[in-house]
């Protein structure tokens, strides 16, 4: 059996699990875990993809409570007809989002995004346009030395099929995110930080994607660096598991993200300062 691109010896796995049956209580606990893992290993073959996604995020503070966010990103991937990752762009996307900072603990947002899917393995080997409408709320647990947050996001996807007809899919996304500064207690200029998140996504059913309501699981970990108080970069790895009736899919996604706050306002201030400052 081939699981996630590697051969898995089911017989050896079962024999090792059975050998724990007559052992200590500790090993019997491991046996229960083995049984659970065995149910995963014995599933249908999983197709694995290697992907890379660069992303640019621009944030603009409108007032003390309101802020705007603009995202641009694309995704490169190997596909059945091309093994090299950077040979195929399978997705490009742009998003605008409005944020309302209700309190130090709560933030509410709404967004509109456009996706152009091309040779997207999940959807099919054809070009598909997609619009996404979403609202979300984030609850922050700020502690000295780390930040824990949970995000709740219902969204509606309007996706075209091969004939160009739009169909709608409702999804609910639940994410838990952890940020830990490494060389500082807060995120500020010069800070290196660790970031990790776990997200579960559920959806309404549609005939092209199967009848199961569980859509996917996304586990992310990586790190970032605060260039200054308004600019940061992140490099993360995402393990995205997508179960489907026709065969499961596993995406190994590496992402590089550049985040900047109040970019044009800061540029304007610097130009104004240069103009008004006396010559050396």
Short description:
The protein is mainly beta.
Could you name the key traits of this structure?
mainly beta, globular, disordered N terminus
Question: What is this structure's SSE topology?
Answer:
Layout: E1 2-3, E2 6-7, H1 10-19, H2 25-41, E3 46-61, E4 66-77, E5 89-101, E6 106-120, E7 124-143, E8 146-160, E9 166-181, E10 192-203, E11 214-228, E12 231-242, E13 248-261, H3 263-276
Parallel strand pairs: 3-13
Antiparallel strand pairs: 1-2, 3-4, 4-5, 5-6, 6-7, 7-8, 8-9, 9-10, 10-11, 11-12, 12-13
Helix pairs in contact: 1-2
Structural summary, described in words:
This protein has 280 residues and is mostly beta strands. The protein folds into 2 domains: 1-43; 46-276, Porin, CATH 2.40.160.40. 15% of the residues lie in helices and 59% in strands. The protein contains 3 helices and 13 strands, in the order ββααβββββββββββα. It has helices spanning 10-19, 25-41, 263-276; strands at residues 2-3, 6-7, 46-61, 66-77, 89-101, 106-120, 124-143, 146-160, 166-181, 192-203, 214-228, 231-242, 248-261. The strands form 2 sheets. The chain has an 11-stranded mixed β-barrel. It has a two-stranded antiparallel sheet with strand order 1-2. Strand 5 (89-101) and strand 6 (106-120) form a beta hairpin. Helix 1 packs antiparallel against helix 2. The radius of gyration is 23 Å and the shape is globular. The chain starts with a strand and ends with a helix. The relative contact order is 0.12. The model is unreliable at 1-8 and 35-43 (pLDDT under 50).
């Amino acid at each position: 059996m081939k699981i996630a691109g590697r051969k898995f010896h089911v017989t050896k796995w079962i024999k090792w699990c059975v050998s724990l049956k007559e052992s200590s209580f500790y090993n019997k606990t491991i046996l229960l875990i083995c049984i659970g893992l065995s149910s995963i290993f014995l599933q249908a073959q999983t197709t694995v993809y290697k992907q890379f996604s660069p992303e640019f995020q621009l944030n603009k503070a409108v007032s003390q409570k309101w802020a705007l966010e603009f995202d641009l990103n694309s995704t490169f991937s190997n596909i059945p007809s091309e093994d090299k990752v950077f040979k195929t762009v399978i997705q490009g996307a742009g998003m605008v989002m409005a944020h309302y900072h209700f309190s130090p603990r709560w933030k509410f947002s709404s967004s509109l995004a456009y996706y152009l899917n091309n040779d997207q393995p999940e959807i099919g080997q054809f070009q598909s346009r997609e619009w996404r409408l979403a609202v979300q709320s984030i609850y922050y647990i700020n502690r000295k030395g780390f930040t824990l947050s949970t995000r709740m996001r219902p969204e509606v996807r309007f996706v075209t099929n091969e004939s160009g007809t739009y169909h709608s899919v409702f999804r609910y996304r639940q994410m838990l995110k952890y940020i830990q500064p490494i060389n500082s207690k807060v995120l500020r200029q010069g800070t290196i930080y660790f970031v990790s998140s776990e997200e579960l996504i559920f959806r309404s059913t549609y005939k092209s994607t199967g009848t199961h309501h569980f859509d996917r699981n996304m586990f992310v970990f990586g790190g970032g660096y605060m260039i200054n108080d308004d600019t940061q970069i992140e490099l993360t790895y995402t393990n995205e598991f997508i179960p489907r009736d026709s065969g499961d899919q596993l995406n190994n996604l590496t992402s590089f993200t550049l985040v900047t706050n109040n970019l044009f306002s800061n540029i304007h201030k610097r130009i104004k300062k240069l103009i008004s400052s006396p010559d050396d």
